[in-house]
Amino acid sequence: MRALLIVFGKEFLENLRDRRTLVSALLFGPLFGPLLFGLMVSRMLNQSVAESDEPLRLTISGSEHAPGLTRYLEARGVKLTKASLSETDARAAVRSGSVQVVLIIPKEYGPRFSAATPAPVLLVADSADSQTRKSADRARIILGGYGNTIAQLRLQARGVNPLLVMPVAVNEVDVATPTGRAVVVLGFMTYFVLFAVLMGGLYLAIDSTAGERERGSLEALLSLPVARSSLVGGKILATCAYMCISLALSLTAFVCVFRFVPLERLGMSANLGPVTALTFFAICLPFVPLGAALMTFVASFTRSYREAQTYLTAVLLVPTLPIAFASIYSLKTQGSLMFIPSLSQHLLMTSVLKDEPIAALDVWVSAGASLGVAVVLMVLTARHWRRETMLG
Fold first, then answer.
1. CB-side neighbour CA atoms (13 Å) of 316
2. What's the CA gap between 17 and 146, in Å, rounded?
């Protein structure tokens, strides 16, 4: 144990003296990630609020054929720009981006409308453009409302109760809480947290293995009368220490940044205070030795600092891949998924963000699975360090 602590102190202090590496590990990942994420979320929210407050702008051609529809659109706050465009001209205008949506009312609209038969209109839009698609959806809803209004008036004129054509009235009940809705925006935050954890120990894991070999100090280190398991344990423990510091800085940055993100403007609230940050820290803590052991194990097989960086950059993606699957398949917290490291931490943190209760058994299974994999990797690393190939 004494040898392990000595190795830990040596590696911790040596990494502390390397200011450039320290800034990259403890500032770039833990602080830049939350700032970037916060700016992205703020920009997205401000754009959503601006779009909801901004009136729909619609270019209309042939408005003289449908004066009632034109008045209805104006009464709904639609900003109409009248123009004389054929279908070909409208397609070209939308494709070029000069207009977003064009409503074409053909000449046969009036006679067919008067004859109480379906009157055609053309809504020209580009579905590949997200902004245009939103405007087209809004226009489609307003036009649908106009059609329903006319249908009800025609039934009333013929002495038919309009409710007869509405056999089912659907009333939506949204059970989502403000914190639950916020997870739609904040769900990807867990990726930044786990990535910052790994970034905190990346450079130390490389320097204490491939760096030692490249400097020629590894042979002298291995010749000391110290158990290889103590050497490996000390190096992994030092890596864990920096990963914990990185985790603490990242969570603190997220708490500070999201105090200035206007989630309330969209009916959301972030359950992200000091208590939540401490809960996140406790959930991610078992993942720290796993990440440290994984990076040390992989770096032990490399011959140079640059080679280790190449391999570990790819290795960083492995623990974060399950989070991508969770987002794609909308996975929820369940016992069987707690055996998968990183995914279990993601699901537990997401439940905390939603302010949902989490089972103590799930927390223990998640921690046990992560620590179990970490122990296996530590044993494999120590066995590799006992081989003569470490000096090759």
1. 22
2. 71
